[in-house]
Amino acid sequence: MASPVLSSIDPRGVATVTLNRPDRHNALDATVIAALGTVLSTLERDTAVRAVVLTGAGTTFCAGADIDSMRAAARTPETANLEDALRLSELLATLNDLAKPTLARVNGNVFGGGVGLVACCDIAVVSSEARFTLSEVRLGILPAMISPYVVGAIGPRQARRYVLSGEPISAGDAQRIGLVHEVAAPALLDEMLERVIAALLKGGPVAQVEGKELIREVAAAGRTPGRDARLVLAQRLARLRSSEEGQEGLSAFLEKRPARWTRDD
Length: 265
Known about the structure:
Blueprint: E1 5-9, E2 14-19, H1 30-45, E3 51-56, E4 60-62, H2 67-73, H3 78-96, E5 102-106, E6 109-111, H4 113-120, E7 123-127, E8 131-133, H5 147-165, E9 169-170, H6 171-176, E10 182-184, H7 189-200, H8 205-221, H9 227-241, H10 244-254
Parallel strand pairs: 2-3, 3-5, 4-6, 5-7, 6-8, 7-10
Antiparallel strand pairs: 1-2, 8-9
């Protein structure tokens, strides 16, 4: 039996994680959720990994919750449903908090929990033929577990429309409302992805880890941080400026040469 989640790492340190249930449109069940969480945690610990790409096998990125799992959930008590919801919540937190840069390569349609996976990634590159649907309301339920990440990506105003209506979102509209960053024709999807990866690989690995933490701190502090928050930001910058990576980056810039982390030697 094929693994429901595949993982590979290229010589550059770019890991590709593939949801591998094309016959089920890469739907999420307990097995997939557990496997994906394990793969992401393993890549988190691998110092050779520079970036993580999440995609789907076949023509769909992710159909959200597996229909058999939903059917079973309808027959189980609230306590069992709570455990199931928390498993997805833990997976989303793992992906959202991953220290490495993460990219969603959205090769096809996305429903429900799959939209949450896209929202948890740092960067989303999408096929122009992909459609996104927060379809839970049409089933009489809510996208509760993915809501912090989806609202964080598109804002409460857009969330009011799409969470309440469940209407499909085109790739162009997904870009317009902030859910995705780049839209490309299917034949050009990987070319666009490679352009973004190439840009990421020019950044300092430590600075990127710190950058993700910085963004979370700034978002939590709001637009006008107080003195204590400003001090934390200043300390972070000072620490990086004086670090080995910071010194190398500055030296490379002044000497008009590539930084060490962009070279193979």
